[in-house]
Amino acid sequence: MDTHSEYLTKILLSRVYDVAHETPLEEAVNLSRRLGNRVLLKREDAQPVFSFKLRGAYNKMARLSPDELRRGVIAASAGNHAQGVALSARKLGCEAVIVMPMTTPAIKVDAVRRLGGQVVLYGESFSDAWRHTLDLIQQTGYVFIPPFDDPDVIAGQGTIGMEILRQHPDPIHAVFVPIGGGGLAAGIAAYIKNLRPDIRVIGVEPTDSDAMRVSIMAGHPVELARVGLFADGVAVKLVGNETFALCRDLLDDIITVDTDAICGAIKDIFEDTRVVAEPAGALALAGLRAYAAAGNIRDATLVAVVSGANMNFDRLSHVVDRAKIGADREAFLAVTIPEEVGSFRKLCAVIGNRNITELCTRFADPEKARVMVGIDIKSRDEIASVMEDLRKAGFQALDLTDNELAKIHLRHMVGGNAPHLTNERLIRFFFPERPGALMDFMDAMETPFNCTLFQYRYHGADYGRVLFGMEVPEEKQAAFETFLARVEKMGYPYIDESDNPAYKMFLGWHDA
Length: 512
Description:
Layout lengths: L2 H10 L12 E3 L1 H7 L2 E6 L9 H9 L4 H6 L1 E4 L3 H13 L3 E5 L5 H9 L3 E4 L4 H15 L2 E2 L6 H17 L6 E5 L4 H13 L4 E7 L4 H8 L22 H10 L2 E5 L1 H15 L5 H16 L6 E6 L9 H11 L3 E9 L4 H9 L4 E7 L5 E9 L5 H11 L3 E4 L4 H5 L15 E9 L4 H8 L5 E8 L5 E9 L5 H13 L4 E3 L4 H6 L6
Parallel strand pairs: 2-10, 3-4, 3-6, 4-5, 7-8, 7-10, 8-9
Antiparallel strand pairs: 1-2, 11-13, 11-14, 12-13, 12-16, 15-17, 15-18, 16-17
Helix pairs in contact: 1-8, 1-9, 3-5, 3-8, 5-6, 8-9, 9-11, 12-13, 12-14
């Protein structure tokens, strides 16, 4: 039996539209212009549960017998399949129990409960929850609704491929699909490869949750010892046997991307749609961007499935921190400059009209100052130009754009006590945030006082905030007060934090 052809029939006969919508296939205009390709987004975030998972869950449950529905259903899920099962159960009038990893974002847990599902939290990953689900099935007799490794579930997800080809009958170079357990990729590939084998179907996994890639390389399903949890919707340690076979036979390639790339894709989706995709939901677009860059693909039509938008609000700060680097639109550098009056402003002048997103330094050495700098860039290639400009100006520079330690920890830890500074003044300044505002501030700060601390980070707020430390000998205190009055009149209000106890404890001079 040709199982690939059988799946074409299953997809065409799938029962998904009792609860699911045919979602839009929209062009990402801004991203298309930047990449030099036509990028189309398949908007599964527009489903009633903000995820594609509703399709497979309902297609499976709609085929249960009346007796099976009376017994109730149970599922293991990191969140989106859970919502699909819960909504399908409400539609079909049966009880639903959902076993979810304890790491599942609260937004998904709460959504399942609102839909009437009973939630059981267990384990750290989907695989842990799945094993506990098997134990509960033995105890209760509930009917198990698999999240991916089931022909009816796979066929339900495959209706996305059917919609893509119907909505865009013109040539498509490649369709990019996120992979967790593999049900979505298997279903879409089964449909597209039966009807349009010329279209490449490419799976995308996080670098720290690449169970399908590892399994295909090994020739059999391989269970990962651990998985990353940032993209929790695809945090699967072991793919299914059925999904493995279909992905092995039908996918043209599997691409892996890191957290920065996923965050960059979340930003790209937002800028074109005003939708905040969850990490797994932006995974396919991250893979699309990597594929286009690696293959120098131009003037092609590329489709990415935006698989979900159940983003936990608490994760947004991390996404914002990493998104610009992940989209190759921010560089992060460490620069060594002379510890002398004027060198700090010279550094800003060398950076020129490039927008500075972050600037941090702390006095530690009487001869050399080390500065962390974030800079807006148009592409990764621009970093080399910035580094050359700094070298020509006599500064030593180190590219930290790919340094995880620096990005996760050190950028928030630049500082420390300065025991040599017994006459430091610490001032917080404010200024209207706009392009060039930081450079204008630096020009206004022309002063004979040595800069001992500087911290600035662009946060997208209406006002920029700078923490500025200056060495002010006792005999120059009056002159310093005159300086503060002058810059305040120039439109830079300030707060003197020199007596702040937090400053004295963590940044200032104090008696041991």
